[in-house]
Specification:
Layout (H helix, E strand, L loop, with lengths): L8 H4 L23 H15 L9 E9 L6 H14 L4 E7 L4 H15 L5 E7 L2 E4 L5 E4 L1
């Protein structure tokens, strides 16, 4: 093992260096780094300048997972899996909505409007996921079906 406790000067003498210790081409200019603390401070300053202070560009991330109450595709388990993934891995806030068969268009519109209103303050990312049948009509509009 290479001993740097006496400073970098010993490292500059490559005659004692065994080939197994070389993991990359040797660099002979270590004089600019005084010690580990200097390296750490320089790296910290560089990273602060590169990455924003705010960890996320969003105040919150919210998802609405939609399927049909009368599900004939088995999307309920897909929605459950996605819900768990978004909550556990990404720490997103999730909500689920099953579209009823009766008055479905109006109920879906109301739920989407409520979801947007609930999260419109601040800089939030809203994710809407639909599990179910779908197609485009002649006007190019999306049509969801149970």
């Amino acid at each position: 093992m290479l001993d740097l406790s006496k400073g970098t000067q010993e490292y500059l003498d490559l005659t004692n260096l065994k080939p197994a210790l070389l993991t990359h081409p040797p660099c002979y200019d270590f004089g600019h780094i005084k010690d580990f603390e200097t390296f750490r401070d320089n790296l910290s300053r560089a990273l602060k300048g590169t990455f924003p202070l705010k960890a996320n560009k969003y105040d919150g991330v919210y998802s609405l997972l939609i399927d049909w109450r009368d599900d004939d595709l088995g999307c309920a388990s897909e929605i459950q899996d996605l819900d768990a993934q978004l909550k556990n891995q990404f720490r997103f806030q999730t909500e689920k909505f099953s579209i009823p068969t009766l008055n479905s268009e109006r109920m879906l519109q109301d739920r989407l409007i409520d979801f947007e209103r609930a999260h419109r303050e601040g800089s939030n990312l809203l994710i809407i996921y639909y599990g179910g049948h779908g197609q485009f009509n002649l006007q190019g509009n999306s049509v969801w079906r149970a």
